[in-house]
Each structure stands twice: as C-alpha cells, then as structure tokens.
What we know:
The chain is mostly helical. The protein has one domain (4-11, 21-131). It contains three helices and no strands. It has helices spanning 4-10, 20-42, 48-131.
Amino acid sequence: MNDDSDIEGDFDFDAQSDNSDSSVSAKGSTKQKLSQIERKIQSSSLSKRERRLLQNRKSALKCRLKKQGQLDKFRGRVDKLHSHNRSLQEKVAALNALIEAKNHELASLSSKFDNLQMQQIFFMTTVLSQVGVDVQ
C-alpha cells in the first residue's frame, strides 16, 4: 500500500498568482492534477483513508477551479463596467460642454433681445414725440 506522505507529496499546490496568464496555466495544471487524482482513486490498492484523502483533494481542486472561473468571470465583468463607465464619463463631458455652449448662446441672445427692446422703446418714443404725443 501507498504511504500517506507519498499521496500528499504527489499533489503539492503552489499559490496561484492573480495575473491571467498564470491562472490559465494553473487551470490546466489543476485539471491535470484532477485527472491524476481520479486515476489514483480508481486504483484498487488504496486503503479507505487514502481513498478519502484523494476524494477530499479532488473536491478541493474542483472548488478551486470553480472559484477561479467565478473570479475570471467577475474580472471580465469589472473590465466591461470600467469601459462602460469611461464611455458614460465621456458622454457627460460632451453634454457639459454642450450645456456651456448653450448657456453662452442664451446669454448672447438675451443681450440682443434687451438691446432690441431698448431700440423699440426709443423708436416708439421718437415716433410718438414726432406725432405730438407727450411721452414721459
């Protein structure tokens, strides 16, 4: 029968880094480790304890794979949300610039309107005074 240290030594797990290149290779090596464990479990020469240890290792590896898949999915979602956020910020900046331009246009038109009103009042008072109407 196999020694427990031999079983544990065959499946040492290194800490996985967070960058995507190593996580892809880590997934591949984890899947290889899963198949190695599965072959060992199928071996009839294992004791109950050894089989249980291997089943636990297999479950832990599956859990790590699932967790890594979820993490990759969330990272992708974060990237999409960052991109969408940048797009929205650009739209907000463009709209703020448009508002600024419209405010300047409004101020200019308001000033022109005030000038036209003053000209109209001056013209009307001039016409009325020429006709002989007293305007005060």
